[in-house]
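ARCHIVE CARD
SHELF: 3
SLOT: left
DATA:
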Amino acid sequence: MNILHVIPSISPRCGGTTYAICGLTTHLAKKGHNVRIFTTNLDGVGRAIAGTMDVPLNRPILKNRVEIRYFATQYPRWVFSWDFMKALRAELKKTDIVHIHSLYLFTTSITAQYCRYYNVPYLIRPHGSLDPFLRRKRNRLVKAIYHKIIECHNWDNAAAIHYTSQEEMKLAHRPLRIKAPAIVVPNGLDLEEYSDLPPYGRFREKYPVLKGKKVLLFLSRINFKKGLDILARAFGEVARKRGDVYLAIVGPDDEGYGEKVKKWLAEEGVLDRTIFTGMLLGKDKLSAFRDSDIFVLPSYTENFGIVVIEALACNLPVVISNRVNVWREIAEADAGVVINCDPKELARALLELLDDSERCRKLGENGRRLVEQKFTWEKVTDQMIKVYEDILNGRLKAGVKVITSGVQRLALRSF
């Protein structure tokens, strides 16, 4: 198949979004498909844009067998690009199917419009932007108008809407009355990358204050939706009861939000027991997982939470909120502790795990097993290829929900 993926940015600042598209496209190419990515040189998206990346523009770059083309933008907040638009028209003439990532941006709207004009089937992956929390929280009026005029036509005429968890689909598809079929295919990861972790202690050596301490790890963007206000209050309670616990906050700061987090931690009297490392990649990130005792992510919304799967792959016990949309799978596998977005509940869960090393060990084992069974790129890519084939062969019909999980595939008329 000739497959085109369209995404506004694949900057590392975009976190799981970039990780997901790069992983999926790489493994699609490994299986013999002709895969291309159209994107821009923006270093981030929306309010999190930190300028532009130093990349070649408007010419193909081959990476892991995937052809990537970056385009400059004339209006970054909406990701408007003349060069993107001109190149897209030519590209669609040699494309079988298009996979669009993101909503409410020029790259999505123009791609969907051109796909309809040239009769090329397309999927849209919203990456959590249809979650009720985000719809209420940011640009509600603007998005409502944009939806009415433009976006609803893109959704309803898509070959499918791609969700990465059943919870994400449940929160968005039926409430918004989207007419296109819904498919659920999760994110994945390369287990080989997590099979040879750095030796214990490398991360702690960089931060000597952690020597002999218990470490709680938050690894994600420092962003309003990540529940860091909950974590700060919970950590304050934990720290007042245990003097041997430190918090590591690992990730890039979105829009200066880190200053708010530091203020909350200072109010709890635990800023001096918190370290901020900034973004870590590669072995440095794996070292943070390796040297931590518990991973914690109390997000208000998370369409999937690939970082949670990474923690599970490292045999790390996780504590997550029930707004991290992969929570049902983790709860069913007894691979972590799921809490409400409540500081006291989070503190209680953390204290219980800190006092129960055997429980932590068991959760870690179950988590690794869950990743092996459901979240490897090998299995996820096969599921995605099956979806593409169903679309091209006319086997997906409007109003039908398709769940692809493991070796099972169920088509249900309602949900």
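SLOT: right
DATA:
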Amino acid sequence: MSHAAQLPSQSSAAAIGRASAPLWSVLLFTFINSYASGTMFSGLFFVLEKAYGFSALDNCLIGLVFGITYIIGAVGAGPITRALGQRGLSPRGLIVVLMILAAGLNFLPVLAWYGVEPAARSGMVWMMWLFSGLYSALCGVLWPVVESFLAGGRTAKQLRHAMGKFNVTWSSALVGSLLVLAMFAAEHKMAAFGLVALVHLLSIGVLIFWPARAGEHPHEQHETPPVYAQLLTVHRVLLPLTYVVLYAIGPLLPSITRQVGVSARWQEVVASVWLAARVVAFLTMGLWHGWHGQWSTPKVGMGLLLGGFAAAVLAPALAPAAADGVTNAIGVSLVGLSVFLAGLVAIGLGAAAIYSASLYYAMEVGSSGVDAGGTHEAMIGLGYTVGPICGILPLAAVNAGWLGIAAGTPVTVGLTSLVVAGGIAHAFRTARATTRQRPN
């Protein structure tokens, strides 16, 4: 059912509802808000470690909060849009409300840090947990609605073109978010939240170019190769697995960068390497279409992802090479840092391959809309949730004395790999079953 059919309509409203939002305006809004949300989802782990002394286990726990609340928001995006539409609030109006709420939420950490005496700041850490849950849920609602405006009124070819630019736009904004965060001195990291609040408010101005409602997605009835349906089945499982890996390593990045010898001033910059690699891969896959319909894409993508994860997480074990003189002038272990950077690049390339293919096959075989976007984002949220759990269990076992400190990292790698390997096996088994059941 289209959004226009779900809302009270008049002829003029229906005409507006069928119009596409200008692509440049959707991309601009996406860039602005991806910068804002990226600062939180990727940079918050660094902020919490430096401002509140969060450990890797603490960061994994707050990552778990991210995932659970993001799923709730994404699953609720469609019902919320319809319920508010029946009360006269258009999807564009909902986005305006979400931007105002996002700006307000980002002032909570600022107040918790600058609004109290330095000695009392540690007692305000509860506000960071509250912020994390509410902000993540809000983002879970936001992005399915934005994606419906991206897809609305665009044909298959136009939509593929738009989605290629969309991927490059949001992923490049995430790189910028960490680079900007790195510009704030350690003692002023909380000021970044005020900047994010302002960014959310400024993005409202872009919405004047959007129709009140997303246009209908003119899903063309055309035959696709049978392999596309099989690949869609596989990638629907691989997509959350990708985020399992990303959010298993995300909370650990502050401690890993420190262990391989990166100074606090440059940790966010170094951690942004995987984000930059993902942008390059998105751009390449948007221009070169030789990967369409190829089984090698998910295989190579997941291979890069898992191999990169193992290299990045185990890189600190190579840092002691500094004792053998394999260091640069400032004492950073060249071996450990090189392996870490190579792992981050592999993670970025693998993540881009899976994400690009997931969206492509969803467009070719499936359909678009707030509910479809909500499902897509909820699957990402599932990865947000399971990934931190793979870090929480080993770290909690180390803290309880059940595992030695040296065993924590290998167990994290093993547990994450086991979850991902099981998911991959399920994905390909399901694809084969689908093929056998399809009538000739």
